Amino acid sequence: MIASFLRYFNRWWDPMQSSREAIITLRQQTDMIDRKGEYLEKKIDEETEKAKASVLTDKPVAIAALRRRKATEQEFERLQDARLQLEIQINTLESANLNARTLGAMQRANTAMGDTHTQLTALHSALSQFREYNTRSTIDVLRSEPTCSTLPGLDGDELKAELEQLEQDVLYEQRVESGELPSVPIYTLPIVDDGAEEEELEQLQLALAM
């Protein structure tokens, strides 16, 4: 009983499995109909041969054989109609299975496309945030770099004076190099001995005291 319930539950839970089982059952029925049809065809042939054999010698036997053949042919036709109905049901179930698989594939594809779109959107958002962060970082770095006006101990007048002095030095060097001004020799001042200077000072004081 439990096994039957589980089979029923599985069929209810998986329609595809239920339809596959139905298709298998229907094909088994068509196989049985085919075997029965082969038997009826042989019987029709046998009754036909009996009627031929008795048509000249024993007409009642021939008529009975023809009646049996007619009944067998009618049964064969009903059997073929039943087989046709089974084939229609099989084709319907197979088409339904194919449509269900196609729909499932389309749904999975749509889900995958949705996931891909979500991932692309997240990536685009991350790239936008990254570019915005780089822009803010660059602006912060530029704002944090010191300028001439913010350097400690250096005002505009002092900078202007140094610039003018540097300009004069460069012009002077250019004029010296071009020969417009003679180069000024650099003289080395003699080194003064502190002891000799003190001795001269003492002699001067003695001379004044006399």
TrEMBL record:
Any Gene Ontology CC annotation: ESCRT III complex
Localization per record: Endosome
Keyword hit for Coiled coil: yes
Organism: Hermanssonia centrifuga
Entry keywords, A to Z: Coiled coil, Endosome
GO terms classed as biological process: late endosome to vacuole transport via multivesicular body sorting pathway; vesicle budding from membrane
Entry keyword annotation includes Coiled coil: yes
One of the Pfam families matching this protein, by short name: Snf7
Main localisation: other
Coiled coil (UniProt feature): 62-99
Family designation: Belongs to the SNF7 family.
UniProt name for this protein: Vacuolar-sorting protein SNF7
InterPro entries to which the protein is assigned, alphabetical: Snf7_fam (IPR005024)
Domain of life, per lineage: Eukaryota
